[in-house]
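Annotated sample (chain length 117).
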Amino acid sequence: MNRHGPRVVIGWAAGQAALVVMLAGFGGTAFELWLYSCAIGITTSLALAMLISTYRHPLPRRRHRVSTRGEVGMAAAATATMFGLAGTYGTWFVPIAVPLLVMSIWLASRRPSRAAP
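Output written by the structure step:
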């Protein structure tokens, strides 16, 4: 089993610590330093908890099939993005989101065609 997890977590935490030091060097306020440091602490602790969990409860490697219907996911993601923008910036994005919603429902409901052998 490939164990690159500790190096990734330690490297990420070291990089974030370097960015905090750089922020302090460029005159960041105490609130900015506190907020960024707390965010780093929370995400690093979650990453370490996941790392410890993978060591205590290793899962066997599994092969996953790749979906051949990726256009449904893309249309649904675009729909969710447009509705999110509509919720944030107003109803200007709804005329774009509604046709995308109809298209994603239509794509999800049609049956996949059989490929020629």
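Annotation: The mean pLDDT is 80.
Annotation: The helical segments are 5-25, 30-56, 70-89, 94-109.
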